[in-house]
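Input/output pair, single chain:
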Amino acid sequence: MKRISRTERQTERKLETVLTVSVLAGLVLTGCGVTPHELLGVETLFEEETAESLVMETEETVEESAPDGTTEALPQPHDVKPGQILPSESLYRADIDQFFWQSGITDSVSARIAGKSYKEGAEIPESDLRYLQVLHYDFDGNVRVGELICNKAIGSDLLYIFHRLYEEKYPIERMVLVDEYDADDAASCSANNSSCFNYRNTTGGSSLSKHAKGLAVDINPLYNPYISRDTGACVPENGSDYADRTLAFSHKIDENDLCYRLFTEAGFTWGGIWESTPDYMHFEKDQ
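Output:
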C-alpha cells in the first residue's frame, strides 16, 4: 500500500476546497439559492486552511530533517578523517552510499604507508592495492569513519560487506590503517583495530601472510584472537580472556555471527576453522 505523505493529503484538501468554491460560485450565478455571503464563508475557510497548511508544512520540514530536529551539517565524504565520529542525526536522511568508496593509492596515502605496512622491496605493486572508506558503528553506538587498504580483487566485496554491517549496526570498535600503529600487528590487535593490508609474514611463520597481498581482513581482533594449540600463544596477548570459545561474550565471531555469514557468503575463508592455529579474527580470500 502506498504511503501518502502529509503534504500530499494537504494538497488534496486544497483541491477539494477549490472545487467546492467553484461549484458554489456556479450555483450563485445560476440562481440556486446560495448567497454570496455563504460563498464568502467558504473562501474564508479556504484562506484559513491554506495558512494552517503552510504552518504544518514548515513544522514537517523541520521534523523530517532529523529525529531530534538538529540542523548540524554533515561533512562531505572526502573531507572526513579516519576515526572521526559523524553526527548520527545528520546521517538520518543522508545518502549513505557516498561514504562507501574505493580509490587507487594516492600520493598522500602512499606517504602514510611507506616504510610501514608497505615495506621496501614489497613484491606487490601499489597499483594492485585499493584504499577504502566505509562507515561503522563503534562499541558506544557512534558512527565512525573507517578506512582499509586491500587488494583490488576484493575491494568491491569489502565495500558490500561493510555496507551491510553498517546497515545492521554491527559493532566494530575501530578501523584505521595498521600504519597508525607503525604496522605493528600485535599493537593494532591489542587496540582492537580492524585492518587488512600489512606486508608481513604469517604469525609465527616465515612465509608471507595473505595480509601482505591485501587479501585478508581482521575484525575485532581483541575479542577474536589467534591461538596456537601447540605453544599456547595468544595474539594479542590481552585477548587471552576470549580464547575459550565455549564461553558467551559480546563481539564474538562464530558460525552464527553476521560478520561470519557475510564474509563466507562472499567466498572468504574464516580462520576460526583452522585446527592447530585457529584465527578467529581472520577472513581471507584466494585471488
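The beta strands are 85-86, 101-103, 129-137, 143-151, 216-218, 226-227, 234-235, 269-270, 282-284. Residues 6-65 form one domain.
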